[in-house]
Amino acid sequence: MMRTFYIWTIGCQMNQADSDRLATALEFLGYRQVESPRDAEVVVVNSCVVRQQAEDRVVSKLWELKPLKRRDPQKVITLMGCMVSPKNKDELKARFPHVDIFLRPQEYEPLLDLLKERGCVEQVVNPFDLIPKAVGPTAYVPIIHGCNKVCTYCIIPYRRGKERSRPIEEIRREVQGLVWRGVKEVTLLGQNVDSYGHDLPGKPDLADLFYALSEIEGLKRIRFLTSHPSDMSDRIIEAVATLDKVCEHFNVPAQAGDDEVLRRMRRGYTVDDYRKLIAKIREKVPGCSLATDIIVGFPGETEEQFQHTLDLLAEIKFDVVHVARYSPRPGTFGAKFLPDDVPPEEKKRRHRAVEELQEKIAAEINARLLGQTVEVLVEGRQKDKWYGRTRTNKLVFFPAEGNLLGELVQVRIEKTSPWALQGTLAVPAAVA
Ligand code: SAH
Questions:
Q1: Rounded to the nearest 5 degrees, what angle is found at the Cα of 172, between the Cα atoms of 8 and 292?
Q2: Could you tell me which of 331, 333, 334 has the C-alpha nearest to residue 86?
Q3: Which residue's CA is the nearest one to ligand 1's atom 5?
Q4: Nearest to residue 295, comparing CAs of 331, 250, 248, 329?
């Protein structure tokens, strides 16, 4: 009989990568992934607690599993990810008695050991020794775990620990394995990807990793996220500018456009530092696209300080802005010492103001692509169209016959919106 598992994932790309790694290990051990927790012997909830909203969804997912566990007590219910800290497992067990096992981010052994103890699997495996299964032409590759920053709003360092970089050789092997399985594009992941390598012998940096991975034949594109404005070195920018495979796209969270707010967030830079960094990136990597993260309604954020954030967005004109309303996270400096004093209605208004401004900016930026021909890596099909992304990470839809999955094609852009582009094949691709 085939053993079965189900994984539900919420949160960042790192969480998705962690889920993929666990899935790879379980498949290696003879399990098959199923679409419903009902049909699974092992059920995993991979959690996110970066904001209350995510945490609430995790909690309701956990309660949904309770009747399933009652009906089938043999089911192994697992809570994994950032909801689990080194200290709160007992507390979580008391709150969710139907959950069998709690795993911190990337702590896979307790689950694998339990399956071994129960006789469900015969061997032990370290998930980091396996090449994650490739499900398409793109893949996430974690390169540095944890975060050494102390942003006052952020729970992540408490849940993912201090920074730990994976050796270049280990990453190279993993990417090579992925390419053999058909992957064309990798996204290198870290909470702070620019600080890659400082803890490794010889202190290689992200640029060194770019150079090493660029040599892999068959790999077409390299992306990376997320960058911290204080850690993005000239060497990294230079490598993006020089290396053909590294895409011209930067994810650099600004979080706010006001010095006082940035200071209270303990971001470690001023608005002017940020401005200069962006100017340098644009000078060295012309035509690059930029994404950022913004938090609205941070403790003490006045109307005027919020206006400074809107001013920064209007000045820089990012391609993409991810905006979030401040959500106090128990255990952080912010939750302890900074009163959450912007009312929910006001947070919502500021959220909407950022979105409205950004919609106009993105519409303008994307409209400039009208009539241009762009390179698209085809990632999938939706209804009657193929879709994929440009090097600058813009989503493009186009109709075409044949199987184009994983192909690099040239698409002429005929319609644009703030969120996506539509076009047609410029040069008919050689169809497999
Ligand atoms: N390493 C990244 C953050 C990763 S978390 C950085 O340098 O900021 C992803 C995003 O979630 C953050 O950029 C931030 O905008 C948002 N976020 C983190 N904690 C938050 C909180 N307590 N409330 C609201 N948004 C938060």
A1: 55
A2: 331
A3: 50
A4: 329
- Bridge partners of 139, per DSSP, are 186
CA 327 to the chain's CA centroid: 19
Q: Which atom of ligand 1 is nearest to the CA of 153?
A: 22
Q: What is the pLDDT of residues 262-320, one digit of tens each?
A: 999 999 999 999 999 999 999 999 999 999 999 999 999 999 999 999 999 999 999 99
Q: Does ligand 1 come within 6 angstroms of the Cβ of 76? A: no
Q: Edge-to-edge strand order for the sheet containing 3-9?
A: 31-33, 3-9, 42-47, 76-81, 101-103
User: Among 419, 413, 395, which Cα is nearest to 321's?
Assistant: 419
Q: Is 154 in the pocket of ligand 1 (CB under 6 A)?
A: yes
Q: Which residues of 299-320 are buried (b: 16+ CB within 10 A; e: fewer)?
A: bebeeebbebbbebbeebebbb
Residue 234 is inside which H or E element, if any?
Answer: helix 234-242
pLDDT of residue 133: 80
pLDDT over 90 for what percent of the chain? 96
Probe target for ligand 1 pocket from 255, 274, 293, with the most ligand atoms within 8 Å of CB: 293
Q: Does 144 sit in the ligand 1 pocket, CB within 6 Å?
A: no
**N residues, the chain:** 432
- Quote the ligand 1 centre to 108 CA distance (angstroms): 25
Q: What's phi and psi for 259, nearest 5 deg?
A: -60, -40
How many CB atoms lie under 10 A from the CB of residue 125? Answer: 17
Q: Determine contact, residues 369/412, Cβ cutoff 8 Å.
A: no
Helix (H) or strand (E) holding 290: strand 289-296
**138-145 and 185-190 as β-strands: parallel, antiparallel, unpaired?**
parallel
Among residues 365, 417, 410, 368, which one has the least CA distance to residue 386? Answer: 410
